Amino acid sequence: MPKILFDHQKFTTQRYGGISRYFANIVQQIAQSTDFSSEVGLLYSQNHYLSPSGNELDRFMSPLLRHHRLSDLLYKANQAYSHRLVKKDDFDLFHPTYYDTYFLEDLKKPMVTTIHDMTYEKLPEYFWAQDPLTHNKRLHIERADAIIAISETTKSDLMRYHRVDEDKIRVIYHGIDLKQPLEFAPVEGLPDSYLLYVGDRSGYKNFYLFIDAFKAISQKYPKLEVILTGGGRLGIADQELLHRLGLTQKVKHVQVTDEQLNTLYSRAEIFVYPSLHEGFGLPILEAFKANCPVLLSDTPCFREIAQSAVAYFQPHSLDDFIEQIDQLLAQPDRRTQLVQRGNKRLQDFPIEKSIKETLALYVSLMK
């Protein structure tokens, strides 16, 4: 039985997160298969998707891992274990979960790498010049026997920035479980009316333009608030921005479980995703499934994934951002129409299709 080895990287660094969920879905599908087996190079992880219920060890480790030194030690321990499994060579194909290069000299078997986006290459001005990610990603691309691009946009970007044989690239969209009903959990203190922002707030995510737009629109809709989730707690610069704009009481950050996130989507007036560039945009599918109207920046990837099921604004235009929010808030019938279109578009992304295509790619490399 062919064996797939996944390494530790995103399972170590993410408790929740799109990339670790992507890999966990593959691992779980293989576990149900009689055609494959798999192993994950982990000594210990608190990743929700691998161990959703948690245990006594998790409750003991959680406060300890808030200390950077201990979390660094865990990363090194998991990496050493993954490296040991690579050198042991008791597998048929390797699929690393991110772009660390610790294994390259010792890997003898075929390798698949997934390119989630080319944001660092496309928008380098938003990133630290000493960040090794683009270098490491290039080494993955050069070593890989096959490359999964999660959208046609990502494939196009990949071929633009790297000399890579197109035949090595397979576009496999993310998927979502269409059969499993959503589970909800209460979130304390939610306002009656709010815009929802999910994820990181770093430069290319366009968060500050969103806050400027909210400042303007809140003059017309004084009861409207903003709920932020993911991306870590508000930093000092974020807090100072909200203080300067007089929005401290109207913008709230909450850390939530997947079930609570479903509640946030379902009760939001609009899910706003203003990013300047993405490789796919999994929160779009999450919002569709939770019947939440969506407003996106008008970028090629978002057009590819969402098509006509969302509203768009020009990604650098504050005036257009304000206008599009205003129009959606003023037109409940349009929001309902977008929800209906979102439900229809969602049917194009079943998780089964994504996993089937991924496993077929594995098979093609092991013949």
Automatic annotation (TrEMBL):
<dbReference type="InterPro" id="IPR001296">
    <property type="entry name" value="Glyco_trans_1"/>
</dbReference>
<dbReference type="GO" id="GO:0009103">
    <property type="term" value="P:lipopolysaccharide biosynthetic process"/>
</dbReference>
<dbReference type="Pfam" id="PF13439">
    <property type="entry name" value="Glyco_transf_4"/>
</dbReference>
<feature type="domain" description="Glycosyltransferase subfamily 4-like N-terminal">
    <location>
        <begin position="17"/>
        <end position="179"/>
    </location>
</feature>
<dbReference type="GO" id="GO:0016757">
    <property type="term" value="F:glycosyltransferase activity"/>
</dbReference>
<dbReference type="Pfam" id="PF00534">
    <property type="entry name" value="Glycos_transf_1"/>
</dbReference>
<dbReference type="InterPro" id="IPR028098">
    <property type="entry name" value="Glyco_trans_4-like_N"/>
</dbReference>
<feature type="domain" description="Glycosyl transferase family 1">
    <location>
        <begin position="192"/>
        <end position="345"/>
    </location>
</feature>
<keyword id="KW-0808">Transferase</keyword>
<protein>
    <submittedName>
        <fullName>Glycosyltransferase involved in cell wall biosynthesis</fullName>
    </submittedName>
</protein>
